[in-house]
Amino acid sequence: MGSNEVASNEVDRKFRFLTAYKDGRVEIHYSTQKTPPSNDPNTGVQSKDVTISTEPPVSARIYLPKIIDPTQKVPVLYYIHGGGFCFESAFSPLFHSHLMALVAEANVIAVSLEYGLWPERPLPGSYVDAWAGLQWIASHVKGNGPEPWLNDHADFSRFFMGGDSGGANMSNFLAVQIGSYGLPGVRFIGMIMVHPFFGGMEDDEMWMFMYPTNCGKQDPKLKPPPEDLAKLTCEKVLFFFAEKDHLREVGGIFSDDLKKSGYKGAVEVVEHDGVAHEFHLFDPAHDKSTSLVKKFASFLNEV
């Protein structure tokens, strides 16, 4: 082995999801698989992919529940997947199966965001893409947007937003932006935080590494201050926690901070004992996974 090869394999930084080498290479520890959209003849749920932006590339997978009456309007869920900002996809088998099941159970339209991943899209790129997705959804409020499913069937008086892990973090960022700037024509009912990622643990260093212009461990995206949380205008927030999740502690701190911030909405916490991070994606047939989907769905239908 030559000296150049040795040097090229010298590790600069190693994190939970990635390794950075001193020669500038990066290695993501997890691969991302993708599956095409599909229709479920048993539930009647349909899905298709749409382009939100070409530069930067942002897209989404939209899910439509079984529609009996062509004039029927149903709630809207904006969903942002997790994956440490550097892997996974709205088009992955895990998230596709989860959204198909959730839409069938809840009878809602879901827009699942496909945002740019690090390193091709350094942070805060994912947050910018998520905001673009939100604006694209809101462009359908008057029934004249680019997507017929939203024009014809979206009830924007029943709008929900949420995600898992890093996607939950981005959902909170968007909720703060809505609180600051508004979202005309949209009634923001609730936010769903599944195993959310926030600051206060070793993964902070990885997040800051991916976000060169960050403001340190007190960056408001990583550690939202009380004055930001108090801006939330959604009427309720639902947290899902897993006992063995490495993010359980920081998620609990965030939910406590939200309750203390002056936020005027309702906060509900659902805890699943004996299971780990994202258990519902990896074992969807588990009784606690089906329970999570049912609770998620009921939250979307309680207005």
Automatic annotation (TrEMBL):
Residues 30-51 are annotated as: Disordered. It comes from Salix suchowensis. Belongs to the 'GDXG' lipolytic enzyme family. SUPFAM superfamilies: alpha/beta-Hydrolases. This is Alpha/beta hydrolase fold-3 domain-containing protein. Residues 78-280 form the Alpha/beta hydrolase fold-3 domain. InterPro entries: AB_hydrolase_3, AB_hydrolase_fold, Carboxylest/Gibb_receptor.
